Amino acid sequence: MLKKLPIGESTFSELISPSVLYVDKTEYLYNLIKPGRGRYFFSRPRRFGKSLTCSTLKSIFSGNRELFKDLWLGKSDYVFKSYPIISFDFSEIDHKNPEILEQGLHDAINTHARKYAIDLFNQGLSMRFAELVVTLGNKLGPVVIIVDEYDKPIVNLIGDLDSAERSREILRNFYGTLKAGDVDAHLQFLFITGVSKFAKVALFSELNNLNDLTNDERTAALVGYTDQEVDYYLKEHIQSFSDKLRESYEKTRQTLKSWYNGYRFSAKDLTVYNPFSLHNCLDKQALANYWFSSGTPNFLMKFIEKNPHIASDIETIEGSFYAASNLESFTVDTYYQNYRTLLLQTGYLTFISGYDIYSRGYTIGYPNEEVRYSITEQIMEFVGGITPDQFGEFGSKFRKALAADDLGLFCKHLQDFIKLVPHNIRVNREKFYQQIFFMVCVLFGRRPPTEVATEEGFMDLLLEGTKCTFVTEFKRNSTPDVALKQIEKKRYWEPFKILETKSIVLAGVTFNETDKGVVIKWKTKEL
After folding, report:
1. pLDDT tens-place string over residues 72-91
2. What CA–CA distance (Å, rounded) separates 343 from 290?
3. For the purposes of burial, counting CB atoms within 10 Å of the CB of 239, is it exposed (0-12), middle (13-18) or buried (19 or more)?
4. Residue 22: what are its φ and ψ, rounded to 5°?
5. How far apart are CA 115 and CA 113, in angstroms?
Protein backbone atom coordinates (compact mmCIF):
# COMPACT_ATOMS: atom_id res chain seq x y z
CA MET A 1 0.00 0.00 0.00
CA LEU A 2 1.41 3.35 -1.06
CA LYS A 3 1.66 6.01 1.62
CA LYS A 4 -0.75 8.90 1.36
CA LEU A 5 0.82 11.97 -0.22
CA PRO A 6 -0.04 15.09 1.82
CA ILE A 7 -1.60 17.79 -0.36
CA GLY A 8 -2.41 21.06 1.35
CA GLU A 9 -1.67 19.61 4.80
CA SER A 10 0.92 21.36 6.95
CA THR A 11 0.35 20.25 10.55
CA PHE A 12 3.36 18.24 11.64
CA SER A 13 1.61 16.13 14.29
CA GLU A 14 -0.96 14.95 11.74
CA LEU A 15 1.64 14.02 9.14
CA ILE A 16 3.69 11.83 11.47
CA SER A 17 1.77 8.67 10.72
CA PRO A 18 2.87 5.32 9.25
CA SER A 19 0.30 5.79 6.47
CA VAL A 20 1.38 9.30 5.43
CA LEU A 21 4.54 10.31 3.59
CA TYR A 22 6.81 12.63 5.54
CA VAL A 23 10.18 13.71 4.19
CA ASP A 24 12.46 14.14 7.19
CA LYS A 25 13.97 17.64 7.32
CA THR A 26 14.76 17.65 11.04
CA GLU A 27 18.53 17.48 10.57
CA TYR A 28 18.39 20.95 8.97
CA LEU A 29 16.33 22.23 11.90
CA TYR A 30 18.77 20.71 14.38
CA ASN A 31 21.50 22.94 12.98
CA LEU A 32 19.31 25.98 13.69
CA ILE A 33 18.12 25.10 17.19
CA LYS A 34 21.15 23.28 18.63
CA PRO A 35 23.30 26.41 19.21
CA GLY A 36 20.62 27.81 21.56
CA ARG A 37 19.19 31.29 21.07
CA GLY A 38 18.49 31.98 17.39
CA ARG A 39 16.91 34.75 15.31
CA TYR A 40 16.07 33.71 11.75
CA PHE A 41 14.27 34.88 8.63
CA PHE A 42 13.50 32.40 5.85
CA SER A 43 11.88 33.25 2.52
CA ARG A 44 10.51 30.77 -0.02
CA PRO A 45 7.73 30.72 -2.64
CA ARG A 46 4.25 29.62 -1.65
CA ARG A 47 3.44 25.92 -1.28
CA PHE A 48 7.01 24.86 -0.65
CA GLY A 49 6.72 23.74 2.96
CA LYS A 50 7.25 26.89 5.04
CA SER A 51 4.10 26.30 7.11
CA LEU A 52 5.08 22.69 7.76
CA THR A 53 8.50 23.92 8.89
CA CYS A 54 6.83 26.33 11.32
CA SER A 55 4.56 23.55 12.60
CA THR A 56 7.55 21.23 13.05
CA LEU A 57 9.39 23.88 15.06
CA LYS A 58 6.36 24.35 17.31
CA SER A 59 6.28 20.61 17.99
CA ILE A 60 9.99 20.61 18.76
CA PHE A 61 9.72 23.52 21.20
CA SER A 62 6.65 21.97 22.79
CA GLY A 63 9.04 19.28 24.01
CA ASN A 64 7.15 16.38 22.43
CA ARG A 65 10.02 13.99 21.79
CA GLU A 66 7.65 11.10 21.07
CA LEU A 67 6.59 12.67 17.76
CA PHE A 68 10.21 12.60 16.61
CA LYS A 69 11.22 9.13 17.76
CA ASP A 70 11.57 7.79 14.20
CA LEU A 71 13.10 10.94 12.74
CA TRP A 72 16.67 12.18 12.59
CA LEU A 73 16.13 14.69 15.41
CA GLY A 74 14.69 12.08 17.77
CA LYS A 75 17.80 9.96 17.37
CA SER A 76 20.20 12.86 17.85
CA ASP A 77 21.65 14.38 21.03
CA TYR A 78 19.07 17.18 21.03
CA VAL A 79 17.52 17.67 24.48
CA PHE A 80 13.79 18.26 24.13
CA LYS A 81 12.42 20.97 26.39
CA SER A 82 9.09 22.76 26.55
CA TYR A 83 9.07 26.52 25.90
CA PRO A 84 6.19 29.03 25.89
CA ILE A 85 5.34 29.64 22.22
CA ILE A 86 3.83 32.70 20.54
CA SER A 87 2.85 32.07 16.93
CA PHE A 88 1.33 34.26 14.25
CA ASP A 89 0.03 32.75 11.03
CA PHE A 90 -1.00 35.58 8.73
CA SER A 91 -2.99 33.25 6.52
CA GLU A 92 -5.36 32.99 9.50
CA ILE A 93 -5.23 36.64 10.62
CA ASP A 94 -7.77 38.77 8.78
CA HIS A 95 -6.02 41.50 6.78
CA LYS A 96 -8.52 42.73 4.19
CA ASN A 97 -7.47 46.30 4.95
CA PRO A 98 -5.07 47.99 7.39
CA GLU A 99 -7.72 48.57 10.05
CA ILE A 100 -8.82 44.93 10.04
CA LEU A 101 -5.16 43.84 10.12
CA GLU A 102 -4.49 45.87 13.25
CA GLN A 103 -7.55 44.44 14.98
CA GLY A 104 -6.53 40.94 13.90
CA LEU A 105 -3.14 41.38 15.54
CA HIS A 106 -4.78 42.59 18.73
CA ASP A 107 -7.02 39.49 18.69
CA ALA A 108 -4.03 37.18 18.16
CA ILE A 109 -2.17 38.75 21.08
CA ASN A 110 -5.24 38.43 23.30
CA THR A 111 -5.62 34.77 22.35
CA HIS A 112 -2.06 34.03 23.51
CA ALA A 113 -2.61 36.01 26.70
CA ARG A 114 -5.70 33.92 27.52
CA LYS A 115 -3.85 30.71 26.70
CA TYR A 116 -1.16 31.47 29.27
CA ALA A 117 -3.52 33.16 31.77
CA ILE A 118 -1.86 36.56 31.45
CA ASP A 119 -3.55 39.92 32.02
CA LEU A 120 -2.40 42.66 29.66
CA PHE A 121 -2.81 46.34 30.54
CA ASN A 122 -1.28 48.27 27.64
CA GLN A 123 -3.66 49.29 24.84
CA GLY A 124 -1.30 50.11 21.96
CA LEU A 125 -0.44 47.24 19.63
CA SER A 126 3.35 47.37 19.98
CA MET A 127 3.25 47.96 23.73
CA ARG A 128 0.75 45.14 24.17
CA PHE A 129 2.93 42.76 22.15
CA ALA A 130 5.99 43.69 24.19
CA GLU A 131 4.05 43.23 27.43
CA LEU A 132 2.95 39.75 26.33
CA VAL A 133 6.52 38.62 25.58
CA VAL A 134 8.07 40.09 28.73
CA THR A 135 5.31 38.84 31.06
CA LEU A 136 5.33 35.39 29.51
CA GLY A 137 9.13 35.22 29.75
CA ASN A 138 9.07 36.20 33.42
CA LYS A 139 6.35 33.65 34.12
CA LEU A 140 7.49 30.58 32.16
CA GLY A 141 11.00 31.26 30.91
CA PRO A 142 12.49 32.08 27.48
CA VAL A 143 9.89 32.54 24.74
CA VAL A 144 9.77 31.08 21.22
CA ILE A 145 8.14 33.27 18.54
CA ILE A 146 7.19 31.81 15.16
CA VAL A 147 5.72 33.99 12.41
CA ASP A 148 4.38 32.37 9.25
CA GLU A 149 3.74 34.40 6.06
CA TYR A 150 4.74 37.69 7.67
CA ASP A 151 4.31 39.57 4.37
CA LYS A 152 0.87 38.28 3.36
CA PRO A 153 -0.96 41.46 4.46
CA ILE A 154 1.31 43.45 2.12
CA VAL A 155 1.37 41.07 -0.85
CA ASN A 156 -2.41 40.62 -0.86
CA LEU A 157 -2.90 44.40 -1.03
CA ILE A 158 -0.18 45.13 -3.55
CA GLY A 159 -2.77 46.19 -6.13
CA ASP A 160 -3.75 49.01 -3.76
CA LEU A 161 -0.44 50.68 -2.93
CA ASP A 162 -1.95 53.07 -0.40
CA SER A 163 -3.46 50.24 1.65
CA ALA A 164 -0.33 48.12 1.20
CA GLU A 165 1.81 50.98 2.49
CA ARG A 166 -0.42 51.52 5.54
CA SER A 167 -0.34 47.79 6.28
CA ARG A 168 3.44 47.86 5.95
CA GLU A 169 3.59 50.67 8.52
CA ILE A 170 1.48 48.65 10.96
CA LEU A 171 3.76 45.65 10.52
CA ARG A 172 6.87 47.81 10.80
CA ASN A 173 5.77 49.01 14.24
CA PHE A 174 4.62 45.52 15.22
CA TYR A 175 7.86 43.76 14.27
CA GLY A 176 9.86 46.70 15.61
CA THR A 177 8.76 45.52 19.05
CA LEU A 178 11.20 42.65 18.76
CA LYS A 179 14.22 44.97 18.68
CA ALA A 180 13.56 46.28 22.20
CA GLY A 181 16.20 45.10 24.64
CA ASP A 182 13.74 43.86 27.28
CA VAL A 183 11.82 41.88 24.67
CA ASP A 184 14.92 40.36 23.07
CA ALA A 185 16.23 39.37 26.49
CA HIS A 186 13.22 37.06 26.89
CA LEU A 187 13.51 35.39 23.48
CA GLN A 188 14.88 31.88 23.07
CA PHE A 189 14.14 31.51 19.38
CA LEU A 190 12.61 33.65 16.63
CA PHE A 191 11.65 32.23 13.22
CA ILE A 192 9.94 34.33 10.56
CA THR A 193 8.88 33.14 7.10
CA GLY A 194 7.43 34.83 4.06
CA VAL A 195 7.48 34.91 0.29
CA SER A 196 9.10 38.31 -0.21
CA LYS A 197 11.89 40.09 1.58
CA PHE A 198 10.58 43.61 1.95
CA ALA A 199 12.90 46.39 2.99
CA LYS A 200 11.48 48.98 5.40
CA VAL A 201 9.43 46.49 7.45
CA ALA A 202 11.76 46.76 10.48
CA LEU A 203 12.86 43.14 10.18
CA PHE A 204 16.03 43.78 8.24
CA SER A 205 16.80 47.42 9.03
CA GLU A 206 16.31 47.34 12.79
CA LEU A 207 16.72 43.72 13.87
CA ASN A 208 20.45 43.63 13.36
CA ASN A 209 20.73 40.16 14.85
CA LEU A 210 18.21 38.60 12.44
CA ASN A 211 19.96 35.89 10.43
CA ASP A 212 18.60 35.78 6.87
CA LEU A 213 18.63 32.17 5.66
CA THR A 214 16.95 32.81 2.31
CA ASN A 215 20.04 32.36 0.14
CA ASP A 216 22.12 30.51 2.72
CA GLU A 217 23.71 27.32 1.37
CA ARG A 218 23.05 25.56 4.69
CA THR A 219 19.28 25.81 4.21
CA ALA A 220 19.17 25.34 0.42
CA ALA A 221 17.16 22.13 0.92
CA LEU A 222 15.28 22.99 4.12
CA VAL A 223 12.07 22.95 2.07
CA GLY A 224 11.45 21.34 -1.30
CA TYR A 225 12.75 17.88 -2.22
CA THR A 226 16.23 17.05 -3.46
CA ASP A 227 16.83 14.34 -6.07
CA GLN A 228 18.15 12.08 -3.32
CA GLU A 229 14.98 12.56 -1.25
CA VAL A 230 12.75 11.88 -4.24
CA ASP A 231 14.61 8.65 -4.99
CA TYR A 232 14.45 7.54 -1.36
CA TYR A 233 10.91 8.52 -0.35
CA LEU A 234 8.93 8.43 -3.60
CA LYS A 235 10.35 5.50 -5.54
CA GLU A 236 7.23 3.34 -5.17
CA HIS A 237 4.92 6.20 -6.19
CA ILE A 238 7.02 6.90 -9.28
CA GLN A 239 7.04 3.20 -10.17
CA SER A 240 3.25 3.13 -9.92
CA PHE A 241 3.03 6.16 -12.22
CA SER A 242 5.44 4.66 -14.75
CA ASP A 243 3.42 1.42 -14.74
CA LYS A 244 0.32 3.40 -15.64
CA LEU A 245 2.16 5.18 -18.43
CA ARG A 246 3.62 1.86 -19.62
CA GLU A 247 7.09 3.32 -19.83
CA SER A 248 10.33 2.73 -18.03
CA TYR A 249 10.91 4.00 -14.52
CA GLU A 250 13.90 5.99 -15.75
CA LYS A 251 11.84 7.80 -18.39
CA THR A 252 9.12 8.74 -15.92
CA ARG A 253 11.73 9.84 -13.42
CA GLN A 254 13.39 12.12 -15.96
CA THR A 255 10.04 13.61 -16.98
CA LEU A 256 9.23 14.48 -13.36
CA LYS A 257 12.64 16.05 -13.00
CA SER A 258 12.29 18.28 -16.04
CA TRP A 259 8.74 19.25 -15.13
CA TYR A 260 8.94 19.93 -11.38
CA ASN A 261 12.61 20.25 -10.35
CA GLY A 262 14.95 23.18 -10.89
CA TYR A 263 14.35 25.61 -8.01
CA ARG A 264 17.68 26.92 -6.73
CA PHE A 265 17.95 29.33 -3.84
CA SER A 266 21.67 29.74 -3.21
CA ALA A 267 25.08 29.69 -4.84
CA LYS A 268 25.26 25.99 -3.96
CA ASP A 269 24.78 23.73 -6.97
CA LEU A 270 21.61 22.15 -5.59
CA THR A 271 18.07 22.26 -6.94
CA VAL A 272 14.82 21.11 -5.37
CA TYR A 273 11.38 19.95 -6.49
CA ASN A 274 8.17 21.71 -5.63
CA PRO A 275 6.48 19.27 -3.20
CA PHE A 276 2.95 20.47 -3.98
CA SER A 277 3.28 19.78 -7.71
CA LEU A 278 5.10 16.49 -7.24
CA HIS A 279 2.56 15.18 -4.73
CA ASN A 280 -0.35 16.17 -6.95
CA CYS A 281 1.20 14.60 -10.02
CA LEU A 282 1.96 11.28 -8.34
CA ASP A 283 -1.37 11.21 -6.51
CA LYS A 284 -3.45 11.88 -9.63
CA GLN A 285 -0.94 10.09 -11.87
CA ALA A 286 -1.15 12.87 -14.41
CA LEU A 287 1.49 15.31 -15.57
CA ALA A 288 -0.07 18.75 -15.32
CA ASN A 289 0.25 22.29 -14.05
CA TYR A 290 -0.51 22.17 -10.31
CA TRP A 291 1.58 24.75 -8.46
CA PHE A 292 1.23 27.59 -10.95
CA SER A 293 -2.53 27.20 -11.36
CA SER A 294 -3.06 27.06 -7.59
CA GLY A 295 -2.22 30.74 -7.16
CA THR A 296 -1.43 32.63 -10.33
CA PRO A 297 -0.27 36.18 -9.46
CA ASN A 298 -3.20 38.01 -11.08
CA PHE A 299 -1.94 41.40 -9.91
CA LEU A 300 1.25 40.78 -11.87
CA MET A 301 -0.67 39.72 -14.97
CA LYS A 302 -2.84 42.82 -14.75
CA PHE A 303 0.29 44.92 -14.51
CA ILE A 304 1.69 43.18 -17.60
CA GLU A 305 -1.60 43.78 -19.38
CA LYS A 306 -1.14 47.53 -18.82
CA ASN A 307 2.60 47.38 -19.61
CA PRO A 308 2.88 44.81 -22.42
CA HIS A 309 6.56 45.52 -23.01
CA ILE A 310 7.18 43.67 -19.72
CA ALA A 311 5.83 40.49 -21.33
CA SER A 312 8.57 40.59 -23.93
CA ASP A 313 11.23 40.71 -21.24
CA ILE A 314 9.65 37.84 -19.30
CA GLU A 315 9.46 35.71 -22.44
CA THR A 316 13.17 36.22 -23.16
CA ILE A 317 14.50 36.34 -19.62
CA GLU A 318 16.27 32.96 -19.67
CA GLY A 319 19.99 33.34 -19.06
CA SER A 320 19.89 37.03 -18.17
CA PHE A 321 21.95 38.70 -15.42
CA TYR A 322 20.47 39.67 -12.07
CA ALA A 323 22.30 41.88 -9.57
CA ALA A 324 22.27 40.44 -6.05
CA SER A 325 21.80 43.94 -4.59
CA ASN A 326 18.24 43.97 -5.97
CA LEU A 327 17.25 41.46 -3.29
CA GLU A 328 18.18 43.95 -0.58
CA SER A 329 16.20 46.94 -1.86
CA PHE A 330 12.75 45.51 -2.50
CA THR A 331 10.01 47.85 -1.24
CA VAL A 332 6.26 48.24 -1.59
CA ASP A 333 6.51 51.33 -3.77
CA THR A 334 8.99 49.67 -6.18
CA TYR A 335 7.22 46.31 -6.31
CA TYR A 336 6.21 46.56 -9.95
CA GLN A 337 9.39 48.29 -11.07
CA ASN A 338 11.36 45.37 -9.64
CA TYR A 339 9.19 42.72 -11.24
CA ARG A 340 12.23 40.47 -11.76
CA THR A 341 12.76 40.41 -8.00
CA LEU A 342 9.06 39.71 -7.60
CA LEU A 343 9.29 36.75 -9.99
CA LEU A 344 12.39 35.42 -8.22
CA GLN A 345 10.92 35.64 -4.75
CA THR A 346 7.62 34.12 -5.78
CA GLY A 347 9.28 31.18 -7.54
CA TYR A 348 8.50 31.94 -11.18
CA LEU A 349 12.18 32.56 -11.79
CA THR A 350 15.16 30.99 -10.10
CA PHE A 351 18.95 31.11 -10.05
CA ILE A 352 20.24 28.90 -12.86
CA SER A 353 23.88 29.50 -12.04
CA GLY A 354 25.55 30.40 -8.79
CA TYR A 355 26.69 33.75 -7.53
CA ASP A 356 29.45 35.37 -9.61
CA ILE A 357 31.72 37.22 -7.21
CA TYR A 358 33.10 39.42 -9.99
CA SER A 359 29.80 40.59 -11.49
CA ARG A 360 28.09 40.40 -8.08
CA GLY A 361 25.02 38.68 -9.38
CA TYR A 362 23.35 35.58 -10.73
CA THR A 363 22.15 34.17 -14.03
CA ILE A 364 18.40 33.64 -13.84
CA GLY A 365 15.75 31.67 -15.74
CA TYR A 366 12.64 29.54 -15.33
CA PRO A 367 13.07 26.62 -12.93
CA ASN A 368 11.23 24.01 -14.98
CA GLU A 369 8.71 23.31 -17.71
CA GLU A 370 5.64 23.71 -15.52
CA VAL A 371 6.54 27.33 -14.85
CA ARG A 372 8.05 28.06 -18.25
CA TYR A 373 4.95 26.94 -20.13
CA SER A 374 2.40 28.18 -17.60
CA ILE A 375 3.68 31.73 -17.40
CA THR A 376 3.78 31.95 -21.20
CA GLU A 377 0.21 30.67 -21.41
CA GLN A 378 -0.92 33.20 -18.81
CA ILE A 379 0.79 36.07 -20.60
CA MET A 380 -0.74 35.07 -23.91
CA GLU A 381 -4.19 34.83 -22.35
CA PHE A 382 -4.02 38.05 -20.31
CA VAL A 383 -2.19 40.18 -22.85
CA GLY A 384 -2.96 38.54 -26.17
CA GLY A 385 -6.43 37.19 -25.52
CA ILE A 386 -5.40 33.71 -26.72
CA THR A 387 -7.90 31.36 -25.11
CA PRO A 388 -7.21 27.87 -23.75
CA ASP A 389 -9.41 26.54 -26.60
CA GLN A 390 -7.09 28.16 -29.14
CA PHE A 391 -4.10 26.69 -27.35
CA GLY A 392 -5.75 23.27 -27.51
CA GLU A 393 -6.59 23.61 -31.21
CA PHE A 394 -3.05 24.56 -32.13
CA GLY A 395 -1.67 21.86 -29.86
CA SER A 396 -3.49 19.23 -31.90
CA LYS A 397 -2.12 20.65 -35.15
CA PHE A 398 1.45 20.73 -33.87
CA ARG A 399 1.17 17.19 -32.54
CA LYS A 400 -0.03 15.77 -35.84
CA ALA A 401 2.64 17.60 -37.84
CA LEU A 402 5.47 16.32 -35.68
CA ALA A 403 4.03 12.80 -35.57
CA ALA A 404 4.31 12.84 -39.37
CA ASP A 405 7.90 14.19 -39.14
CA ASP A 406 6.71 17.17 -41.17
CA LEU A 407 8.74 20.10 -39.90
CA GLY A 408 7.48 22.29 -42.75
CA LEU A 409 3.85 21.85 -41.71
CA PHE A 410 4.88 22.43 -38.11
CA CYS A 411 6.46 25.76 -39.08
CA LYS A 412 3.39 26.79 -41.10
CA HIS A 413 1.20 26.23 -38.03
CA LEU A 414 3.72 28.14 -35.93
CA GLN A 415 3.53 31.08 -38.32
CA ASP A 416 -0.26 31.14 -37.90
CA PHE A 417 0.13 30.91 -34.14
CA ILE A 418 2.52 33.85 -34.00
CA LYS A 419 -0.10 35.96 -35.76
CA LEU A 420 -2.17 35.66 -32.58
CA VAL A 421 0.65 37.10 -30.49
CA PRO A 422 0.07 40.87 -30.10
CA HIS A 423 2.67 42.97 -31.86
CA ASN A 424 3.29 45.00 -28.70
CA ILE A 425 4.71 42.04 -26.79
CA ARG A 426 6.84 40.66 -29.60
CA VAL A 427 10.50 41.52 -29.51
CA ASN A 428 12.86 41.52 -32.41
CA ARG A 429 15.11 39.00 -30.74
CA GLU A 430 15.94 35.46 -31.71
CA LYS A 431 15.42 34.34 -28.12
CA PHE A 432 11.77 35.38 -28.20
CA TYR A 433 10.98 33.15 -31.19
CA GLN A 434 12.97 30.29 -29.74
CA GLN A 435 10.87 30.55 -26.57
CA ILE A 436 7.64 30.54 -28.59
CA PHE A 437 8.85 27.47 -30.52
CA PHE A 438 9.65 25.67 -27.29
CA MET A 439 6.37 26.70 -25.69
CA VAL A 440 4.23 25.24 -28.46
CA CYS A 441 6.19 21.98 -28.18
CA VAL A 442 5.37 21.77 -24.49
CA LEU A 443 1.80 22.67 -25.40
CA PHE A 444 1.27 19.27 -27.01
CA GLY A 445 3.30 17.24 -24.57
CA ARG A 446 6.81 17.37 -25.99
CA ARG A 447 9.67 18.72 -23.90
CA PRO A 448 12.56 19.36 -26.27
CA PRO A 449 15.95 20.14 -24.71
CA THR A 450 17.04 23.71 -25.41
CA GLU A 451 20.47 25.34 -25.43
CA VAL A 452 22.00 21.85 -25.51
CA ALA A 453 25.72 22.01 -24.74
CA THR A 454 28.08 20.38 -27.22
CA GLU A 455 31.86 20.55 -27.59
CA GLU A 456 31.50 23.34 -30.15
CA GLY A 457 28.83 25.44 -28.45
CA PHE A 458 25.12 25.40 -27.70
CA MET A 459 22.56 23.91 -30.06
CA ASP A 460 19.27 25.79 -29.94
CA LEU A 461 16.80 22.90 -29.73
CA LEU A 462 16.56 19.12 -30.14
CA LEU A 463 13.13 18.08 -31.43
CA GLU A 464 11.95 14.47 -31.51
CA GLY A 465 9.58 13.33 -34.28
CA THR A 466 8.33 9.81 -34.86
CA LYS A 467 11.16 8.61 -37.08
CA CYS A 468 13.39 11.68 -37.09
CA THR A 469 15.34 13.75 -34.58
CA PHE A 470 15.63 17.37 -35.68
CA VAL A 471 18.83 19.16 -34.63
CA THR A 472 17.53 22.70 -34.87
CA GLU A 473 19.19 26.11 -35.12
CA PHE A 474 17.18 29.37 -35.12
CA LYS A 475 18.04 32.65 -36.80
CA ARG A 476 16.25 35.97 -37.03
CA ASN A 477 16.13 37.96 -40.27
CA SER A 478 18.47 35.52 -41.95
CA THR A 479 18.26 32.47 -44.19
CA PRO A 480 17.86 28.77 -43.37
CA ASP A 481 21.14 28.15 -45.21
CA VAL A 482 23.01 30.29 -42.66
CA ALA A 483 21.47 28.31 -39.81
CA LEU A 484 22.31 24.99 -41.47
CA LYS A 485 25.90 26.04 -42.06
CA GLN A 486 26.27 26.80 -38.35
CA ILE A 487 25.00 23.35 -37.43
CA GLU A 488 27.40 21.73 -39.89
CA LYS A 489 30.34 23.87 -38.82
CA LYS A 490 29.75 23.27 -35.11
CA ARG A 491 28.77 19.60 -35.69
CA TYR A 492 25.98 19.88 -33.14
CA TRP A 493 24.59 16.46 -33.99
CA GLU A 494 27.66 14.41 -33.03
CA PRO A 495 26.76 13.80 -29.33
CA PHE A 496 23.45 12.23 -30.44
CA LYS A 497 24.54 10.27 -33.51
CA ILE A 498 26.03 7.31 -31.63
CA LEU A 499 23.02 6.62 -29.40
CA GLU A 500 20.24 7.85 -31.67
CA THR A 501 18.15 5.16 -33.37
CA LYS A 502 16.12 7.64 -35.43
CA SER A 503 17.25 9.47 -38.53
CA ILE A 504 19.06 12.71 -37.68
CA VAL A 505 17.83 15.71 -39.63
CA LEU A 506 19.56 19.09 -39.50
CA ALA A 507 17.03 21.92 -39.52
CA GLY A 508 17.63 25.61 -40.07
CA VAL A 509 14.65 27.75 -39.09
CA THR A 510 14.46 31.51 -39.57
CA PHE A 511 12.01 34.13 -38.35
CA ASN A 512 11.90 37.08 -40.74
CA GLU A 513 9.97 40.24 -39.88
CA THR A 514 8.14 41.83 -42.81
CA ASP A 515 5.43 44.44 -43.30
CA LYS A 516 2.91 41.59 -43.39
CA GLY A 517 4.12 39.98 -40.19
CA VAL A 518 6.59 37.28 -39.26
CA VAL A 519 7.51 34.85 -42.03
CA ILE A 520 9.03 31.53 -41.00
CA LYS A 521 11.38 29.76 -43.42
CA TRP A 522 13.03 26.42 -42.96
CA LYS A 523 15.41 24.01 -44.63
CA THR A 524 16.35 20.50 -43.64
CA LYS A 525 19.20 18.15 -44.44
CA GLU A 526 19.22 14.48 -43.46
CA LEU A 527 22.55 12.99 -42.43
Report:
1. 999 999 999 999 999 999 98
2. 18
3. middle
4. -135, 120
5. 5
